[in-house]
Each structure stands twice: as C-alpha cells, then as structure tokens.
Amino acid sequence: MKAVGYIRVSSEMQIETGHSLDAQRTLITEFVRAKGWTLGEIFCDAGLSGTLSDRPALQNLMARAEQHDFDVVIVHAIDRFYRDLSGLLAALHHLHQHQVTFISITENLDFTTPWGKLVLAVLGTLAEIYIDKLRDETRKGKQARARKGLWNGSIPFGYCNGLCSNCTDVNGKDYCPNFGQPNCSSRNHLIPHPIESHAVRLAYEWYAQGIFSDASLTAKLNAFEWQLPDGSHRHFRSKCWISRGGPQPLH
Which domains are seen in the chain, by residue range? Predict the structure, then answer.
C-alpha cells in the first residue's frame, strides 16, 4: 500500500525550531515502516491554521488524491489535518470518493480496517448531508438577494458601489473621476462605473456587429481611449491586479 503523510504547524516558533514538524514526520515514517507500506511524499503546511481549507499543501494533497497517486493519508493527529469539523468531514468525504483512506496515529483511527471503513462511510454520509444542506442554504440566500435587486458575489465589471468618498475599488484612485467625491449611492445599491460601464457598452455594441473575434474585440478595447468630462483620457482596464504590478488591461 502506498502512503503519504500530512504535517502542519501554525506558529512561527514551531516553524523556526522545526521540532513539531520533525516529530510529526518521524512518527509518520516509523508508522509506515512498521506497517510495511511504501511512504511517498509528506505534505507540509507550516504556519497555517487548521481551520483554513485553502492551505497549499492540503490542496495539493486533495488534487493528488483525485489522480489516485496513493492509497492512504497518514497524520500524527486529527487536529494537524483539520481543526474544523465541517472541513474535516468534507475532506474525508473527498478522499473516500477517490478510494483513498485515512489514518490518524494519535487517535488510533485506522480507516483501512473493516470497522474503520464503516466509520469512514458514515462520516462521508454526514459530510454529504452537510454539503447538500449548505448548498441549499446558499442557493436560498442568493435567491433572496436577487429578489431584493441585490447582486451575488463580487461587484461585476462595469459597476461600483458608489461610495466615492471612501473608495476602495481597484479602479478608483488615479483612474475614476469620481474618486474622493461625495457618495453617489448607498452600499447596497450598485451604479455604473464612470469608465468601466462604457467598456461594457462598447463591447456589447461591437460584438453585436458580428465582425470581431474575442481577441480582436479585446485588442480594440485596450487600444480605445475614453474621454472624460474634463477632457482627459483613460484606457480601459480590468479589476485584476497581478502581484504588485498594478492594474491590468482587459483580457
């Protein structure tokens, strides 16, 4: 059986000393050796909370599970894997779906045994019920917002919240003519962005002509300069910032 390990610490002190990570790594290695299994990679998230689901090494482990790269995941203790019950159940359910089992050394949880497989199946069912319930509640919430005329998710391109006096939009300072001016709206109602909205309108108009490909339409928009009321001009840009390189062209 091919095994992988997962280790985690959350404090900077533990990262610097390395004792906790080393201890977890040693226990997992010795456990696998005693079982006579093959140990592959030991995934490590250092300095990250166990309540987070977007830990890089954890995400990598889950993706590799989908590729059937290993048969079992071994941790020193469950709280190294997850400190959040819903996250733990969802993760175990994901592993179970891809025929990957799970072992926690400290709690003596071994889902490779017949009884362990039964427990894992029950936990997976609970996780599925929880996820379905969460999905249903999320859908209800989105429908309720839609009935109120509100948007779901992030503010769509072409709009802003109109809070000009305290604007935090990436296309606000040094770009929007209303930046720092009195508010144009309340937080719960969107208004057309003074520049972005024209990019959206032009994109629709040009696309409707049926003569532009997506690439040529993007190039045309990026080359276009919109004239503001004060006579100045602005190139359209997206809301996407890459690292510290600043705002990016439309794409």
Answer: 2-140 (3.40.50.1390), 159-235 (no CATH)
